[in-house]
Amino acid sequence: MADRTVPARRPAPAPGAPGAPGALAALAARMEAATPAGRDRGVDALRALAVAGVVTGHWLVTAWTPHPGGTVRVSSPLAHMPWLTPASWVLQTLAVFFFVGGYAAARSLRSAAGYRLWVRARMRRLLRPVGLPALVWAGVAAGLAVGGMPIGPIRSLVQPAVGPVWFLAVFAALTAATPLLRAAPLAVAGSAATVVLAADAVRFGLGGPSWPGWVNVVAGWLVPYALGVAWAGGAFTSRRVAAGMLAAGAAGTAALVAWFGYPVSMVGVTGAKVSNLSPPTLAAVCFGIAQVGLALLVRGPLARLMRRPRLWAAVALVNLSAMTVFLWHQTVLTAAALAVLRLGGLPGLVEAPTGPAWLAHRLAWLPVFAALLALVVPAVRAAGRLRGGRPGPG
What's the mean pLDDT in 80-90? Predict the structure, then answer.
């Protein structure tokens, strides 16, 4: 993960007034004071927005349809309400996360004492938080199986919760390869995009098997990650270049969708023959390049906004807990679904996502998920401290 600002300890609110405005203002002021003068707040804001996009997107598109016998199947509102597809263009922000991750890793490597110590610390930060959610969901799956639930519905419930681990594995692999990318990151990004193009040509153009596409799981996300490494090395200083990336990426995505049959949605849709994310397609890569261009353009304005202490405090807190939020946000959603499953479903949670009423109900659930996640994050960090040593950042 990227460099992180460590805020001062949260001051205790006045008795009988938890979360009082004065306490929040004091927290913001102390976090502002604890932030180094040279901190790149625009990069932190980009990361926080990327995390928020992924979390919100998952909470909106992950749905379950109840079936007789207390079982469920995964569904997607995009399969029933295609007019929601533009939301996937806003909330699918993984390319920005990889871009900022490449930038932060390359920057931190400059001051590292050596590769071995650097990569060990990075892998500990990335991989250590995985153990607890994996243990929790292994127990949940075993309990559901013992209770008589068939394997299919168990997979439908557990898979969304453990799905973020695939991202973490790819991110860890690219992080470990950062020193190799620094020599020629732009060439690496171009080569990775060519690999994605070749894999898609085999799958879609030549009617070949689907398995070559899984090379894109690494190659597709290597493109924005390598662009981030290039950015850390001094590339993309011109706004004209950033605007060109935005325009070219958007045009390439539109052409692939309009003329070559790529899906319009930038996230997977249940029942669709092709997904732009599983594995990433050339359309997802082009879309990611457009996102990188946009990120470069808004980084400056975001940095200026982050001079407002309360906004900066919110962004710093998200960055501190980014890994925990990423690993546990779907657990919160799935746990809520499990809790109401015995009731036969609740509107917007365990209910077929077939119309605007479902969307209204799901939007009403979002504050509940956010509140649950706000309880889980400090508990997980406390558990990390109890296991000994410093908990991973986030």
Answer: 94
Q: Is residue 73 part of a domain?
A: yes
Tokens of 37: 């003068």
CA distances from residue 254 to 91, 190, 242, 259, 284 in whole angstroms, order as listed = 18, 20, 18, 8, 11
3-class DSSP state for residue 13?
coil
96: Cβ–Cβ under 8 A, 6 or more apart, which residues?
46, 47, 49, 50, 53, 224, 291, 292, 295
**Beta partners for residue 277, in sequence order:** 280
Q: Report the distance separating Cα 192 and Cα 213, nearest Å.
A: 13
Cα 386–30–55 angle (5° rounding)? 60
Dihedrals phi, psi of 64, to nearest 5 degrees: -130, 140
Q: Which domain holds residue 191?
A: 51-386
What is the tens place of the pLDDT at every residue in 51-75?
Answer: 999 999 999 999 988 877 667 888 8
What is the per-residue pLDDT across 122-151, written as a single tens digit (0 to 9) for each? 998 888 888 888 888 888 888 888 877 888
156-211: per-residue pLDDT in tens?
Answer: 888 888 888 888 889 999 999 999 999 999 999 999 999 999 999 999 988 888 88
As for how many domains the chain has, the answer is 1
Is residue 26 one of the residues assigned to a domain?
A: no
DSSP state at residue 203: I
Does residue 124 form part of some domain? yes
Record the pTM: 0.88
| Alpha carbon 61 to its chain's center | 14
Largest CA distance in the chain: 69
Contact indicator for 256, 286 with CB cutoff of 8 Å = yes
| 18 found inside a domain | no
Site of tokens 């453990």 = 162
